[in-house]
Write a structure and sequence with these properties.
This protein has 9 helices and 14 strands. The chain has about 450 residues and is an alpha+beta fold. The strands form 4 sheets. The chain has a 5-stranded antiparallel β-sheet. Strands 9-11-12-14-13 form a 5-stranded mixed β-sheet. It starts with a helix and ends in a 5-residue tail after the last strand.
Length: about 450
Amino acid sequence: MISLQQQLRRQWLITILLIMLPLLLLADFGVRQLVTDTVMSRLQHDADSLIAALSQNENGEWQLDDSHLGTLYQRVYSGHYFAIRDEHGTDLRSRSLWDKQAPVIPLTFGEQQKWQQLGIQGDQLAEQWLNWAKGIRVQNHDFTLWVAEDITPLNNQLNRYRIAAISLLAMALVSLMLIQRYQLSRAFARLEPLKQQLRALRFGERDDLNAASGLYPQEVQPLAEEIDRLLSLLQQRVSRSRNALGNLAHEMKRPLQQLQLLAEQLDASHQIEQRDALSRLSRLVERELKRARIVGMSSPGRQLKLAEDLPPLLQILGQLYPQARIHAAFDQDAVLPQDHDDLLELLGNLLDNACKYAGGEIQLSIEAYQHQDQDQDQDDQAGWRIQVRDQGPGIEPNQCKHLLQRGIRLDEHSAQGDGLGLAIVSDIVDSYHGSLELAANRPHGLSVVVTLPTATGR
């Protein structure tokens, strides 16, 4: 998953490139056009000088006055060339052409043409000519004037300019990216208080984000305020719901006792049926009271820190069941990522079952695990394994399978056995896409193993 900083840098780089590349191409086109226009202007100027130097001698032959010509046209392969021709065989060429032929382009008077072509090749030369030709008339005589210049040095200079421009652009982009990285780091550093508050909230060290403190940037202040509002609303609703269930269960105890007294006045056949119904109601009431005692005040979103949260639970169970001795083995620094209240309820039900129906020595172990997911071709999957072992009567294997079926609750069918609270445990485990296994403990008793993956879709 790409971070927000990486996404901003990538989008910024794409935007800069979309802006800079067309500008760079436009600049390159402008420089090339400027070079071409400059050379073409010089060729036309030389052409005017050639026309001024063209005359007839006393024999009627056409000739050029060398005094009007620059030395560049006199030096062999100088890169500056001209030729003047007519249809009567006049062929005046610059000495710089030496033994090379000029292109033959017959043009009518006033007609002109410009183009580029390969020039003289070989002899360590690789010329690129920029040509200009025009049909001229001197003393009522028509000629075709051709002038050319080797623009290879200019092209080489232009290529060096391109490399320099691209290098400067690359350096500018790198510099801008470093500046942007620094600016983004400083901007996101302002979110550090929010990160710290969220971490404190996750570990139960606070109940809100303290949005009213004004520590957060203006852009995320509404988000922090909304989270605080939702947290407060959620805490109130969960607390009201659990308090209501606990109060309801507590208030139902006295009417149930009265119903039990009234049931004794019934005949024997009806007493059995009435007492069975009252017994089931009593167990439901006890279960809700037990959940209220175990979880206490709600703290949604908080994670379970074993060293802090487990000892109070063990102390409560020790007071409720003095005949049981719970031995807990876990990493003192372990923090389980699942919800604090869910895990307390899960552990409370497992240990409550063991204390109530087995007593004696009870072993609790909580450890991290890592295994290869066989169903998905992915990397190792990490999670937590919770195991509770007792020395009680245990459960028959067929009852274990029956108990773990969805919707089956052993405590609703019988007043005996380790089924009390396992339905709650099963619901919590399913919500985290974990697994619940019941097996016989050796030499006797029950072993309950719960696995909860770290990454859940809850």
